[in-house]
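Internal ticket - ligand job 418, flavin-adenine dinucleotide:
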Amino acid sequence: MQTYAEVGVAPVSARETVRHRVVIIGGGTGGIAVAAQLTRKGVHDVAIIEPSSKHYYQPLWTLVGAGVAKAEQSVRDEARFIPKGVRWIQDHAVEIDPEKQLVCTRSGTRVQYDFLVVAPGVVSEWSKIQGAEESLGKNGISTNYSYELAPKTWEFIQQTKEGVALFTMPNTAEPGYTIKCGGAPQKIAYMAADYFRIHNRPVKVIYATAGGVMFAVPEFCQVLEGICERYHIEVLTKHELVAVDPIRKVATFALKDKPGETREIQFDMLHIGPPQRAPQFVRESPIAHQEGQMIGFVNVDIHTLQNPNYPNVFALGDAAGLPTSRTGAAVRKQAPVLVNNLLRVMNGKEPNKRYDGYTACPIVTGYGRLVLAEFDYSNKPTPSIPFINTCKERFDMWLLKRYGLPWMYWNLMLRGLA
Ligand SMILES: Cc1cc2nc3c(=O)[nH]c(=O)nc-3n(C[C@H](O)[C@H](O)[C@H](O)COP(=O)(O)OP(=O)(O)OC[C@H]3O[C@@H](n4cnc5c(N)ncnc54)[C@H](O)[C@@H]3O)c2cc1C
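stdout (structure tokens):
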């Protein structure tokens, strides 16, 4: 692990006021990618506000939940990825004042900036599902949306010998709400179904989504419906999980097409895709959308990633108000656009690069099978690998997900090289 002396900047003490040319909130996928690219382009005087001493490669958690990877393979020390010369303020941002060009942290440090990049990701709103938070990790109830709980999913899949395995997808149509990697709640359903098939277990798999379709892009939706048929997965649309009873093992759904009506489903194991939204300090800041579908997310031009009211503020990743699926693959395309446009603004010019909404969801559909769903703002497939049909389940794409993408993430993307 690098020490502060090795990264070349002194730590900040509480209640101090510091000033940096560029301040980045969040040292996850987006924050580190931007910091690495900025320093490669010769920008110095950069600070990252990031509370966690660990950095997670979250896409691996689906494979952890399916027993294909170990949770420990998804985590490394954050210090290894703070670029040399960048100051790491290991604290939570709690307030953004864009008028004063100031970010305040939980321990009272005041961080002044000339330019701000906002990338603190999203938070899970467990309170939207009555009884869920206190049940997680017990009674067959889990989620892959957490480092600690993804191994529990695998434990519960193995323990389910018969009965019902239930998988849920939250209501992302509600303004201000989302779920990162919207494919992840169904990926684990396919993996579980394949596991039960391989082990000849009479388990009924149910996938219940608050939405109306399996997937927003019709070309991929058709493929995924076929996969559900193959596994005999029962798909319930317009079912929003609102409560969990861990003792009776009953999940309660609000029926979106029958207002006021609910339905109970008994389960043996339950995997929950949590409703998520922007962190509170973002939602309450003037840089957030104040209304509309993206309420609470950072208000940025969906192509230039610049805030329309405060041109020295940019955002990327899950916390940004971008109408595309929130993935690391999307961040990989956003980061160079943001860095280019930020550098231009720093030099008194207008942004001139545009992000087209590209995102990619590698949908594991069984052990050794994957459909690589790539698309953009127009919800049209945008395949990036020539000559192969990524709409079909493929073994080579599975290998890419299991080995290629994690390697690329740690060694290229976080180093500002991809
Ligand atoms: C189960 C699962 C499966 C996924 N599968 C895929 C996949 O297959 N492919 C894919 O491309 N993507 C996938 N993703 C999504 C991907 O991980 C995210 O979209 C990506 O990490 C977003 O990057 P980000 O920088 O916006 O947020 P993050 O990487 O989450 O980073 C946010 C950072 O901000 C920090 N932070 C939080 N609050 C504060 C604060 N108050 N002050 C300062 N810092 C703060 C956090 O500690 C964190 O380090 C998956 C995610 C999950 C959970």
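Auto-summary: The first strand starts at residue 17 and ends at 25. Confidence is low (pLDDT under 50) at residues 1-6.
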